[in-house]
Amino acid sequence: MDVGIVGSTGYGGVELYRLLSNHPNVSECILYSSSLDGTSYAEEYPHLSGLSGEKVKPILLEEMQQLDFVFLAAPSGVSRELAQNLIGKKVKVIDLSGDLRLKNPREYEEWYKGESAPKHILDKAVYGLTELNRETIREADLIANPGCFPTATLLGLAPLFHHGLTKPHSLIIDAKTGLSGAGRKATQSSHFSETQENLRIYKVHEHQHTPEIEQQLKIWDSETGPITFSTHLIPMTRGIMVTMYAELKNTSTTGELHSLYHSFFEGSPFIRVRREGQFPSTKEVFGTNFCDVSIKADPRTNRVTIVSVIDNLVKGAAGQAVQNMNVMLGIDETTGLHYYPIYP
Amino acid sequence: MDVGIVGSTGYGGVELYRLLSNHPNVSECILYSSSLDGTSYAEEYPHLSGLSGEKVKPILLEEMQQLDFVFLAAPSGVSRELAQNLIGKKVKVIDLSGDLRLKNPREYEEWYKGESAPKHILDKAVYGLTELNRETIREADLIANPGCFPTATLLGLAPLFHHGLTKPHSLIIDAKTGLSGAGRKATQSSHFSETQENLRIYKVHEHQHTPEIEQQLKIWDSETGPITFSTHLIPMTRGIMVTMYAELKNTSTTGELHSLYHSFFEGSPFIRVRREGQFPSTKEVFGTNFCDVSIKADPRTNRVTIVSVIDNLVKGAAGQAVQNMNVMLGIDETTGLHYYPIYP
Amino acid sequence: MDVGIVGSTGYGGVELYRLLSNHPNVSECILYSSSLDGTSYAEEYPHLSGLSGEKVKPILLEEMQQLDFVFLAAPSGVSRELAQNLIGKKVKVIDLSGDLRLKNPREYEEWYKGESAPKHILDKAVYGLTELNRETIREADLIANPGCFPTATLLGLAPLFHHGLTKPHSLIIDAKTGLSGAGRKATQSSHFSETQENLRIYKVHEHQHTPEIEQQLKIWDSETGPITFSTHLIPMTRGIMVTMYAELKNTSTTGELHSLYHSFFEGSPFIRVRREGQFPSTKEVFGTNFCDVSIKADPRTNRVTIVSVIDNLVKGAAGQAVQNMNVMLGIDETTGLHYYPIYP
Amino acid sequence: MDVGIVGSTGYGGVELYRLLSNHPNVSECILYSSSLDGTSYAEEYPHLSGLSGEKVKPILLEEMQQLDFVFLAAPSGVSRELAQNLIGKKVKVIDLSGDLRLKNPREYEEWYKGESAPKHILDKAVYGLTELNRETIREADLIANPGCFPTATLLGLAPLFHHGLTKPHSLIIDAKTGLSGAGRKATQSSHFSETQENLRIYKVHEHQHTPEIEQQLKIWDSETGPITFSTHLIPMTRGIMVTMYAELKNTSTTGELHSLYHSFFEGSPFIRVRREGQFPSTKEVFGTNFCDVSIKADPRTNRVTIVSVIDNLVKGAAGQAVQNMNVMLGIDETTGLHYYPIYP
Q1: Which chains would you list as touching C if contact means 3+ CB atom pairs under 8 Å?
Q2: Residue among D180, D286, D340 whose CB faces B51 most closely
Q3: Omega before B299 within 30 of 0, i.e. cis
Q4: CB distance from C258 to chain A under 8 Å?
Q5: Any catalytic annotation for residue A29?
Q6: Is C143 within 8 Å of C324 (Cβ atoms)?
């Protein structure tokens, strides 16, 4: 099977390359970039010395249309254009940008401050939250791969919201991410000296992943109100932790909630619901496609605290994309993703 | 003026030493420790080579009673005993442990899992949140210096709760701290290899600073309900950020709230309310006694997000203790605390 | 094939588990520990939740003797005793400690400050520097797996010393390592707050890897004099860089030296000699068994600078041990070690 | 006294501001920048909120000429031009760039790849290695403030080279620095995700501080040959450690060498020669003007290992500049530099 990666020189792209190069069903993995075409991949990423002899190609639409899969790891805006030129051809498209996730074009325009993809494309795109959408993903030609924060958040909340257990308007999401989520571009805010031994909050009430989370929660529980979602930059490279707070409609014990989570995620090999009383940390999923989750009820407040961790570049991007490819191929969804966390 | 530091070999103690050694009103700074007495201070802390020639003394109650000030930076439990032997003497006592902060002994026993100090001592102890309690601190002989999380939290919430602007039962506090807050003891969870590139949550719904925060909030706004408070370990050494979420009773704009904060903290040189739209980061207060605060209203949810940052060892411990000493001495509260943040 | 790991709860042990669990020739991987037997492995290492359901066993000599391979990742001293009870049985032994590396018992006693293994065991142990010793490793029953620093150092120097190109007495080795090399034990010097934003030198002129390096260099070039070897602790978890300086007997250009290195390491898939002018960094081998090397001649001084990097827990310990097992099995030496570096 | 800082928005500039703002002899500290003039300083550096209300000015030569001191913290090339327009006026100039350090213009052109300052300016500039040059600094109008690596290196070597104790051609200098030394500009190599958990070597045999070190060593010991000097980037923000290796002409014990160092640096309050057997780490001088040094002889090789640490932005730049200003003013050289290291 021949696959292509657009945006191959970004962090999402190079992580796709790591996973796809070792995937047993992939025979060739072609690299594309609109900005760095012509460069040697191993020169751009010396950790690939001896592993990649390839040169990065420019965007070659006709060639891409004939591939089996193409992964779009380009920035928002770029992806939208490419997707339109690839659908309806042989190739199946998995888009890792935010361009095709929001069904309502007005929401895209409001939160992304740019022009939305046309409605017929948005309608065609299947939201690739694998564990929750396997059936539709299997039949899809075009996947809108979820954002990193929505992945961790929605997996952490799915059992609660599926069963309508929380009060509307009570959800607070406090998200924390490593720096790699901001991409490879050198900016003042990704400068080591400004980041190390520092902790920052950003895009308060304005993060573009907010409507993506709300859209999905409302599908599960139509009473869901607007959420409070904030994001923090942690002085580490990989990893997302999302701490979520919600009020329960009725009283539940931590034990009952854990049972609910365990049964909800049965058959989902990448979701590890931790034992009662144990909360996951980001390093415990480093380099893998796992999403580890725990929940605890507080009888004092009748609120629950839910914690969900992922590696933002794997389950939050490239890994889930490969998982979706596996589902579309009808093979075991863990194929090519059998990595153990690197620890310490 | 002669001062003493008990628990001088811990991180709180050595930070007190840094500040007191350069304080213009302090002529001698005597070091005590119950566990490491007899050791050379500069041998224990080589960064003090040439700056401290002192040996650490054992606990000498009679000597301490004759000092002008003694700072108790010993663990909870130890402090309680010492305080009882020092009050009623010449010396004024500033206790940095949690032993004397909770007025209700049952709350101490529930959250600290140990025996409370006797009620008459608790009654005597003045809660040393300097900016809010200057008048009573000035007259006090015994200060219960606030915890690091309560300091950042309460300073971030004081204007709102003083004016009763938030709905009861709506407060969520998501706190993040560097590792130095956990002290100098070598433990598995403070091991570099387990901490670096890692993000952890701990003591979910069980942190002993919870009742300390609630006690003070209820003084300001008696309707305050139980809070949700969670704490995270950030892979950095110093710094606390507290992100707080609350629902407003009425609608307010971010501008109105900033005005409120600015006027509330007028005359408080260590509180820097940031301009509208700018949120502080922990590194921006590194090594100093500042507490930087910002707030933003979200019209979508009618909630506010408040962010407060401190250096946990300065404003969250040693710095605020020195600030309280200054107030007790009737001198400018910034004396000996004129440090600029070290950046980067 | 059934294999065992002694010292499975240390960092070397858990890294062996990561590699062996995914190794196609290993059917069972049994965990032993003298100190933590009885504990659940996934409770000790929650990153293995769902991946390991095993309990750690005590040292069971008879059981071990019947395994195909046993890896000793126990501390120096422990290993020596165990090895004596395992040789001569069915099991092949790969010892990752320093106990069996020095052929001269007096050197062991001088540098390790402990009793050496008996001479007949030392004589039996084959030094497992895979790339240089494949033939003897293939026939061995007992492997002394090289130390982390010697691995990086010797691979960086092998081409030069094999050809006798450097002046005796001119070699200086400046080594830098991440914290995981110091093991999992919580100590003052592994405390995050003492390590982060800090750089330390340790064991100056006294590091126990010194005689191990000298022993091998003298085999290659009998004129080799005593070396200067120093080690530094870098605020990172994984990775070793060794910077080596030596004077050339004759003049060589960087190009000539690169040609020499390339041809020397032909057929060694884990050694990546970088292109002229490009030096490797530790992150470029993170999580893998690669050793990346570069060299540069300085016509001003007629010295060369050689840089060699490895992941200390992989090529410097567990990875090279598995590579040696592969050689002993007569299978492709990269089996089970096809990992791409995780970057960033 | 009125002083100016050119290049005030860089890391060297903002560190000068920290020190000069708290200096008792400085009444006004004016900020200049050729690139960011017009911006509010506290907006550029929010850690200065409430501490600096100033706007950054453009380069105003006439105004600068009337100041008491001007510090040039601009990049190489810029400094050279400015210095020419400032000398001969009232103002005394302390240049922190590399433009005026090399007395031989050809060396500048070879190592800096740019045009040298005119010879008469170079002749006028006094090399500001304070501890070694106090007498000439006192009389100077123009100071070439030493580079960060040369400062640590030369202070570590001065006693040995003054007494001609080492063999010519035997010196190897292995330097390690935090990221802040590379300045504030956002580049690929200063990106957090490429730097964290990474260790790199750069400019092998090509670092522009090489001739600066050689120039000074030859003044002390004319037999000094070309040195080997290499530099590594450590994943930390501040701090330089230089590890130096040299062969002794005759045998000396560590004790004898420590005595030599202690007496050599008597009267130098910022040089802390550590006790025999104790080596300094970078964090032990964090935020201060100290240079901590230790030395150890190795009888096996007759080489010595010398370790020297500084904070690159203080003793390696702004702090030494202020120290030089103090010497030029004839006041205590520690004025305004009484900081204790921040630890941890």
Answers
A1: A, B, D
A2: D340
A3: no
A4: no
A5: no
A6: yes
Inter-chain CB proximity A237 and D193 less than 8 Å: yes
CA neighbours within 13 Å on the CB side: how many for D132? Answer: 22
Q: Which of B101, B240, B94, B128 is nearest to B180 (CA)?
A: B240
From the list A218, A304, A311, A309, the residue with the least C-alpha distance to A272 is A309
Q: Give the pairing of strands B92-95 and B69-72.
A: parallel
* pLDDT tens-digit series, residues D142-182: 999 999 999 999 999 999 999 999 999 999 999 999 999 99
Which residues lie across from C57 on neighbouring strands?
C32
The CA–CA distances, whole Å, from C9 to A32, A341, A342, D261 equal: 43, 16, 15, 46
Q: What is the pLDDT of residues B242-294, one digit of tens each?
A: 999 999 999 999 999 999 999 999 999 999 999 999 999 999 999 999 999 99
List CB contacts (< 8 A) between B196 and chain C.
179, 192, 196, 235-237
Q: Quote the pLDDT of residue C76.
A: 86
Q: Is D193 on the interface with B (CB under 8 A)?
A: no
- What is the ipTM, given to two decimal places? 0.97
- DSSP code for D91: -
Is B341 in Cβ contact with D342 (below 8 Å)? no
pLDDT band at A76 (very low <50, low <70, confident <90, very high): confident
**Phi then psi dihedrals of residue A343, to 5 deg:** -145, 130
Domains in chain B, please, with CATH?
Answer: 2-124 (3.40.50.720), 149-313 (3.30.360.10)
pLDDT at B4: 98
CB contacts < 8 A, C to D, total 136
Report the pLDDT value the prediction gives residue D269, as an integer from 0 to 100: 98
Which pLDDT value is given to residue B54?
Answer: 93
In the structure encoding, which two tokens stand for residue A175, read together?
């998200």
Residue D154 tokens, joined = 């030369």
- Those residues of chain C that have pLDDT short of 70 are none
> Which of A197, A274, A278, A303 to probe by mutation at the B interface, max B CB count within 10 Å?
A197
Look at B179 and C186 and tell me if their CB atoms are within 8 Å. no
Nearest to B12, CA basis, from B28, B31, B38, B27: B31
**Which are the contacts of C302, defined by CB distance < 8 A and separation ≥ 6?**
C247, C248, C251
Q: How far apart are CA A313 and CA A73, in angstroms?
A: 11
> Quick one: what percent of chain A has pLDDT higher than 90?
98
What is the tens place of the pLDDT at every residue in B66-78?
999 999 999 888 9
Q: Compare CB distances from B49 to D238, D274, D344 and report the shortest one's residue.
A: D274
CB within 8 Å: D197 and A237: yes
Spans of chain B below 70 pLDDT: none
Tokens, residue C342: 């995780």
Residues in chain C: 344
Q: What is the pLDDT of residue D76?
A: 86
Which H or E run includes D71?
A: strand D69-72
Instruction: Name the residue facing B179 among C11, C188, C193 (closest C-beta).
Output: C193
What mean pLDDT is predicted for residues A162-185? Answer: 96
pLDDT of residue C330: 98
Nearest chain A residue to B202 by CA distance is A279
* Rounded Cα gap, residues A100 and D201, in angstroms: 43
Rg of the Cα atoms in chain B: 20
A77 band by pLDDT with thresholds 50, 70 and 90: confident
8 A C-beta contact, residue A316 and residue A310? yes
Which chain C residues contact residue A341 at CB under 8 A?
47-48
- Measured in residues, chain D has a length of 344
Q: Quick check: D191 and A193 CB within 8 A?
A: no
